[in-house]
Design a protein that fits this description.
Order of helices and strands: EHEHHHEHEHEEEHEH
CATH superfamily: P-loop containing nucleotide triphosphate hydrolases
Number of strands: 8
Radius of gyration: 17 Å
CATH class: Alpha Beta
CATH topology: Rossmann fold
Structural class: alpha/beta
Length: about 220
């Protein structure tokens, strides 16, 4: 399985990537997670990316492409991988394809998780993350047992700086503006599919697996 998961911030790409990783036994690659880890560690890459991430803007293509290709070339991706949130523009997709051709790899399917904007805003603005273990909660949909405290490790929960409502709406607008041509790109390649991201998790996972298995 070599799969691209598309969808606006808050559509559930990360959740489905984790579930599919267990089902298919291939790594889920999130360029966002890699970037946030670099921001937290204060690396040069992290410092460059932080400015864009906190404003809700996309990180420049050259940084993202370099991260993604380097990860795909690691040994655990030999039998497949899932890309979560990358590519986000047609330019990134073209650069990805050029590198995959060099590696003798092709993408099986690009699946878009479709979720209405107001649902996305509600999901993201209410999201809380554990500072210690990274576990994710939602103040309405999946609250921790004790407010502000992680059920898993007892760490403090916080709201990511890019999850406030104003930034969330900007992130969604940026996504919609810059990925319209990306959807057209994968439609032309004949590997594009859409799933309803508001359906129950198990249903969405099953539908994505069915799409990938037909490829």
């Amino acid at each position: 399985m070599r799969l691209i998961l598309l969808g606006a911030p808050g559509s559930g790409k990360g959740t489905q990537a984790a579930r599919l990783k267990e089902a298919a036994g291939v790594p889920a690659i999130s360029t966002g997670d890699i970037l946030r880890a670099n921001v937290a560690a204060g690396t040069e890459l992290g410092k460059k990316a932080k400015v864009y991430m906190e404003a809700g803007e996309l990180v420049p293509d050259d940084l993202i492409i370099s991260i993604a290709i380097q990860r795909i070339e690691e040994e655990d991706c030999n039998n497949g991988f899932m890309l979560d949130g990358f590519p986000r523009t047609e330019e990134q997709a073209e650069a990805l394809d050029a590198n995959l051709i060099r590696l003798g790899i092709k993408i099986d399917a690009a699946v878009n998780m479709d979720v209405p904007e107001e649902v996305l805003v509600t999901r993201l603005a209410g999201r809380r993350v554990c500072k210690d273990c990274g576990a994710t909660y939602h103040i309405v949909g999946m609250p921790s047992k004790k407010e502000g405290i992680c059920d898993v490790c007892g760490g403090e929960l916080y709201q990511r700086s890019d999850d406030n409502e104003e930034t969330v709406r900007n992130r969604i607008a940026v996504y919609q503006r810059q990925t319209k041509t990306l959807i057209d790109y994968y439609m032309e390649k004949g590997i594009y599919s859409v799933v309803d991201g508001t359906k129950p998790l198990d249903v969405v996972t099953k539908e994505i697996i069915e799409i990938a298995s037909r490829s």
